[in-house]
């Protein structure tokens, strides 16, 4: 058993903590947010993520998880410290203030510790940060040189909505190490997972994470560009296009019950990506590249295209029902994807703001997002959120799907869409089957489906 302290108890920090505790390690979740600390110790997750609550309760019962405010004594008594704090972007450049604060705490904690201590950076940071920022700050405050304490960069590849599954069953473990001892100690932490390990430099590990996110974000934007062609062409549906593309063996994919697998999950058209990773990480890698004198036109184009997606969805709605002023529009889905309550840079939220700007009467539904979550991040947004789907669509002039929650497939049922004032459905995630609405009064519009 290893004793591990993790600074930051957000999506990455808490998920990492639970995965490491589940294989027998004692984990201390350190966070400056009193509410998070209290919530975790009461075995209540401070945010929604599929499977997280059950695993937290199990680890609390087994006394393998304890939450506390950042404490030098706790860090001193652990073998490993993992830094998993946010790295937001400000003015399109990565903001490292939280990383620096966490590094100072670790440095102060190690000053009077004689035993070897491994520090792992889990936060997404641009190349050079682990060595030149984290390592140097810890060295300054601990009065130890790097090597007297271990230093690794171990990026996470967690998908919100399936983070627990990804953490417990990683397809690969990337370990960027300052030296051999650091790398070996980090390997021991993951040996029970029995997954391929990629051993590399600190900077390469940092860039692997950005490359991964930029690739998937770009695939999504590419998919949405194809949808634009389909919408402007007679008798074309982008879903048929992707059904054929997904069967290409060069994409290392086969279709399972018409569901894309592997990389083809990102070759689907919709209303854009959001969340805590793709938007900020694509901006950060572009900014980093520019600091090196390198231009990234493909990634830049993907960012621009993604920013336009909510407006494209609005255009479809306006073509369907005309002026939005005074009309009741139901938005289905505020989280940026299903099985999470994360609304950061969510297309659904951005689209809702466009509706308000066009003087529509908006009502929103989401299975897990609550009004207080929305007002906390967007205090000027005053909209009604309900968790009753039938109430949300009742007497609506149009329904717009912006998150692919499974329950929204209920709109295919006659007794559901008949609740609407005008049976107009805009499918921003292409989760419904258009043929079901043939020979019905429903006007169905899907992203990437011909509007001609």
Question: Could you explain the architecture of this structure?
Answer:
NAD(+) binds at residues 31, 36, 87, 124, 160, 280, 344. It is a single chain. The protein is an alpha/beta fold. It has two domains: 3-200, 3-Layer(aba) Sandwich (Rossmann fold), CATH 3.40.50.720; 213-446, NAD(P)-binding Rossmann-like Domain (Rossmann fold), CATH 3.40.50. It is built from 16 helices and 16 strands. The strands form three sheets. The protein has an eight-stranded mixed β-sheet with strand order 3-2-1-4-7-8-9-10, with helices on both faces. Strands 13-12-11-14-15-16 form a six-stranded parallel β-sheet. Strands 5-6 form a two-stranded antiparallel ribbon. Strand 11 (328-332), helix 13 (347-357) and strand 12 (361-365) form a beta-alpha-beta unit. Helix 5 (97-110) packs parallel to helix 6. The longest helix has 30 residues, at 202-231. The chain is elongated, with a radius of gyration of 24 Å. The mean pLDDT is 95.
Jot down its keywords.
EC 1.1.1.22, Rossmann fold, NAD binding, six-stranded parallel β-sheet, oxidoreductase, eight-stranded mixed β-sheet, 452 residues, alpha/beta
Instruction: Please give the alpha-carbon distance between the first and last residues.
Output: 63 Å
Stated plainly, the CATH topology of the largest domain is called Rossmann fold
Largest sheet: 8 strands, mixed
CATH architecture of the largest domain: 3-Layer(aba) Sandwich
Radius of gyration: 24 Å
Family: Belongs to the UDP-glucose/GDP-mannose dehydrogenase family.
Enzyme class: oxidoreductase
Keywords: NAD, Oxidoreductase
Pathway: Nucleotide-sugar biosynthesis; UDP-alpha-D-glucuronate biosynthesis; UDP-alpha-D-glucuronate from UDP-alpha-D-glucose: step 1/1
């Amino acid at each position: 058993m290893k004793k591990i302290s993790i600074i930051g108890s957000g999506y990455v920090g808490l998920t990492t903590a639970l995965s490491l505790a589940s294989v027998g390690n004692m984990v201390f979740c350190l966070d400056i947010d009193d509410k998070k600390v209290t919530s975790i110790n009461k075995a209540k997750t401070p945010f929604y993520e599929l499977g997280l609550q059950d695993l937290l309760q199990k680890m609390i019962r087994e006394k393998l998880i304890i939450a506390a405010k950042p404490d030098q004594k706790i860090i001193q008594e652990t073998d490993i410290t993992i830094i998993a704090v946010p790295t937001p972007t400000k003015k399109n450049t990565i903001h490292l203030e939280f990383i620096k604060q966490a590094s100072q705490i670790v440095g102060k904690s190690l000053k009077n510790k004689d035993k070897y201590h491994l520090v792992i950076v889990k936060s997404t940071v641009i190349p050079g940060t682990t060595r030149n920022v984290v390592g140097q700050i810890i060295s300054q405050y601990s009065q130890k040189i790097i090597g007297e304490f271990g230093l690794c960069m171990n990026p996470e590849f967690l998908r919100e909505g399936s983070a627990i599954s990804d953490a417990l069953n990683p397809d690969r473990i990337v370990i960027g190490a300052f030296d051999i001892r650091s790398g070996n100690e980090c390997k021991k932490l993951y040996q029970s997972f029995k997954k391929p390990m990629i051993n590399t430099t600190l900077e390469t590990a940092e860039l692997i994470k950005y490359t991964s996110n930029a690739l998937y974000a770009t695939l999504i934007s590419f998919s949405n560009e194809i949808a634009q062609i389909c919408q402007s062409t007679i008798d074309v549906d982008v879903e048929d296009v992707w059904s054929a593309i997904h069967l290409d063996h060069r994409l290392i994919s086969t279709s399972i019950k018409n569901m894309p697998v592997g990389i083809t999950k990102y070759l689907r058209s919709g209303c854009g990506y959001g969340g805590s990773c793709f938007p900020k990480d694509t901006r950060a890698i572009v900014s980093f590249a520019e600091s090196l004198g390198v231009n990234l036109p493909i990634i830049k184009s993907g960012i621009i295209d993604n920013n336009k997606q909510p407006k494209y969805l609005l255009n479809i709605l306006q073509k369907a029902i005309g002026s939005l002023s005074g009309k009741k529009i139901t938005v289905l889905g505020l989280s940026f994807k299903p099985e999470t309550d994360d609304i950061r840079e969510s297309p659904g939220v951005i689209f809702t703001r466009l509706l308000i700007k066009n003087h529509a009467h908006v009502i929103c539904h989401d299975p897990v997002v609550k009004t207080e979550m929305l007002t906390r991040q967007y205090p000027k947004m005053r909209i009604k959120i309900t968790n009753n789907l039938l109430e949300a669509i009742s007497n609506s002039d149009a329904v717009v799907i912006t998150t692919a929650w499974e329950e929204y497939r209920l709109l295919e049922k006659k007794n559901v869409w008949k609740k609407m004032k005008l049976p107009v459905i805009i499918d921003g995630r292409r989760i419904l089957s258009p043929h079901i609405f043939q020979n019905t009064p429903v006007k169905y519009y899907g992203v990437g489906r011909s509007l001609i």
